[in-house]
Design brief:
The protein folds into three domains: about 90 residues, Rossmann fold (3-Layer(aba) Sandwich), CATH 3.40.50; about 60 residues, ATP-grasp fold, A domain (Dna Ligase, domain 1), CATH 3.30.1490; about 190 residues, 2-Layer Sandwich (D-amino Acid Aminotransferase, Chain A, domain 1), CATH 3.30.470. It is globular and about 55 Å long. The N and C termini lie far apart (about 55 Å). The longest helix has 18 residues. It is an alpha+beta fold. It is built from twelve helices and 17 strands. Strand 1, helix 1 and strand 2 form a beta-alpha-beta unit. Strands 9, 10, 11, 12, 13, 14, 15, 16 and 17 form a nine-stranded antiparallel sheet that branches. Strands 3-2-1-4 form a four-stranded parallel sheet, sandwiched between helices. Helix 4 crosses helix 5. About 35% of the residues lie in helices and about 25% in strands.
Length: about 375
């Protein structure tokens, strides 16, 4: 039997790490990248450069492949339906993926299914926003674009109607749909990463704590320290309910708020996710291998953690551009440190890599991981 090929849309770091997972599986990835120097295009053989918004281009990259999957959620749903109608196995499918593309669709579907979410409302004008704020207990409220936001972009915490005016005006000028959500009083943010196959097999990783700075995930602690067993079970049950309700295939990441009363679903991603990067080094089966197994309908691997604790910290670009010299220092100073770089041009605030450490003591692991990430970015010099 010939080993399968996978059409992969999007050439970012997630696709790059999928290539790393595909090699031992004997799976060939056929990549559609925006540019020939994209992160994933640097490490793959079969690369097409083109526009993921063009249906003919998508058909060409799918040719000869067993399945199509993605490292981002931006491919137009109508194109995915056309591909599926012509016999291409698209995973996750367009009817699932739309809920990661469109926050209004996601909130509507999950709320109707009884899955716990923050209070929310579609916003058409200042009056509907003011009405929502009154119902939600007053200002501040969170405004989000229904489509296209990520890493804090397309999200605003507004303290008053006056502060919201430029956001509303800007969205109207660009034809963007908005929704408002209550500002949740949460203790911390959690995430559940799972994989689900067309056969219906599900594998769930330990619930993790995520730490955000400026809307960007900076740190992941796996498993979430001090999380009560009952709360962890509840979080997993919510994530599995989401996967079943939306008929997800592949890796699904469900970001949540932990509150005094339980968990609320914040965001969804139907692909490998930043909150699961620790699994490359810290789990028996990485989220990237698991995603390939799931979309190809192969038996899923064990999601078991390899150590009692793992800490992952993202490396953001800073003033330092000589990252190579700096990672020599990190390797020498901490031989158990795992460094992953994405082949990206260094720009301030851009994710250029991540580091992971594993062990028993969260406090010590965090010190080691943050020291390496800060040194690599140039934030510290020793």
């Amino acid at each position: 039997m010939t080993f399968p090929a996978v059409a992969l849309i999007g050439g970012g770091q997630l696709a790059r790490m999928l290539q790393q997972a595909a090699i031992p599986l004997g799976v060939r990835l056929q990549l559609l990248a925006d540019r020939d120097d994209d992160s994933a295009a640097q490490v793959m053989r079969d690369v097409q450069v083109g526009d993921y918004r063009d249906l003919d281009t998508l058909r060409a990259v799918a040719d000869g492949c067993a399945v199509m999957t993605f490292d981002h959620e931006h491919v137009p749903a109508e194109h995915l339906r056309a591909l599926a109608d012509s016999g291409v196995a698209v995973r996750p499918g367009p009817d699932a993926l739309v809920h990661a593309q469109d926050k209004l669709a996601m909130r509507s579907r999950l709320t109707a299914a009884g899955i716990p979410c923050p209070r929310w409302r579609r916003i058409d004008d200042a009056a509907s926003l003011a009405g929502f704020a009154a119902e939600a207990g007053g200002w501040p409220v969170v405004l989000k674009t229904a489509r296209g936001g990520y890493d804090g972009k397309g999200v605003w915490l507004v303290e008053s109607a006056a502060e919201a005016e430029p956001v509303l005006a800007g969205a109207a000028a660009r034809g963007l749909e908005l929704l408002a959500e209550e500002r949740v009083d949460f203790a911390r943010e959690l995430a559940v990463v799972l994989a689900r196959s067309p056969y219906g097999q599900v594998a769930v990783y330990p619930v993790v704590e995520t730490v955000q700075t400026g809307g960007i995930c900076r740190e992941v602690l796996a498993p979430a320290p001090g999380l009560r067993a009952g709360r962890a079970v509840a979080a997993v049950q919510v994530a599995m309910a989401v996967a079943g309700e939306l008929d997800c295939t592949g890796v699904l990441a469900v970001e949540m708020f932990e509150t005094a009363d339980g968990v609320l679903v914040n965001e969804l991603a139907m692909r490998p996710h930043n909150s699961g990067h620790w699994t490359i080094d810290g789990a028996v089966t990485s989220q990237f291998e698991q995603h390939l197994r799931a979309v190809l309908d192969l038996p899923l691997g064990s999601p078991r953690a390899r150590a009692p604790a793992a800490v992952m910290v993202n490396v953001l670009g800073g003033a330092e551009t000589d990252v190579y010299r700096r990672y020599l220092h990190c390797m020498a100073g901490d031989p158990e440190l795992k460094i992953h770089l994405y082949g990206k041009e260094v720009r301030p605030g851009r994710k250029i890599g991540h580091v992971t450490v594993m062990g028993n003591d969260y406090a010590r692991l965090r010190v080691r991981a943050w020291h390496a990430a800060d040194y690599l970015s140039g934030a510290i010099d020793g």
